[in-house]
Amino acid sequence: MAGGGDSFRALLRAANALLQQRRYHAALAVIKGFRNGAVYGAKIRAPHALVMTFLFKSGSLREKLKSIAQATYAHSRNLAYFVFTYKGLMAAQSRLQGKKIPFHSFFAACIGGWLVFGDNNPINSQIIMYLVSRILFGLARLAVEKGYIPQPKQDPFPLVAALVWGTVLWLFEYHRETLQPSLQSSMTYLYEDSEVWHDLSDFLIYNKRTDSK
After folding, report:
1. Which residues are the signal sequence here (predicted)?
2. What pLDDT, in 10s, does the model give residues 175-198?
3. Pairwise CA distance, residues 1 & 28, whole Å
4. Could you tell me which residues come within 8 angstroms of residue 88 by beta carbon, excluding any fewer than 6 positions away?
5. Whole-angstrom distance, CA of residue 15 vs CA of residue 102
6. Could you give the dihedral angle defined by the CA atoms of residues 7, 12, 15 and 16, in that order, rounded to the nearest 10 degrees?
7. What are phi and psi of 199, to 5 degrees?
8. Beta-sheet strands, E only, within the chain
9. pTM for the full predicted model
């Protein structure tokens, strides 16, 4: 047993020494990026899938748990693959050109986005829509910072909030098919299911009656 413990400690020391080698830093960063992508994807998707599945999906407990596991795995896998691809391409470009330039980031992310997130499925669609909203805010702030548009004299957020909510509810009421399915489900729960009830049970306690009365 002692020999096995000594071997393990020696292996651990060798691994730690390898991790300190600067010449392997780029390759090791790619590997850790893969790890962090997988962990972060699982942390983000699992709670979301749990809530959305039990709120809006029907089926047995087994089916719901399987759906949660599949969604979590897909998000975790895709984010891990994307980070791995992005950091690998960044390291390759930097090595080839001898330095890091802004275009490297854009190019590497475009390739990763095409390869990993190019499939139009519910998980990828949600991720892309999440990013689009952040990009629009970021580009607006950058435009102000660079002087392309003047600094607003008043906070524009109330106007943005009004336009966003006005547009999304108009789409929901009159062009519902254009909205993402999970958003349709959320809005149906909020704005349509609240129009229907039969007695106190499905007015305050449940959203919908489960009996045949």
Report:
1. none
2. 999 998 888 988 998 998 888 888
3. 32
4. 30
5. 33
6. -140
7. -155, -170
8. none
9. 0.79
User: What one-letter code names the amino acid at 24?
Assistant: Y
Q: Which of 80, 88, 79, 85 is nearest to 28 (CA)?
A: 88
C-alpha dihedral, 104 to 110 to 114 to 118, nearest 10°: 150
Q: What percent of the chain has pLDDT over 70?
A: 96
Structure tokens at 111: 């390739």
pLDDT at residue 213 greater than cutoff 80: no
How far apart, in whole angstroms, are the C-alpha atoms of residue 133 and residue 111?
Answer: 21
CB neighbours of residue 83 within 10 Å: 23
CB-CB contact of 51 with 102 (8 Å): no
Give the integer Cα–Cα distance in Å for 94 and 20: 21
- Backbone φ, ψ for residue 20 (5° rounding): -90, -5
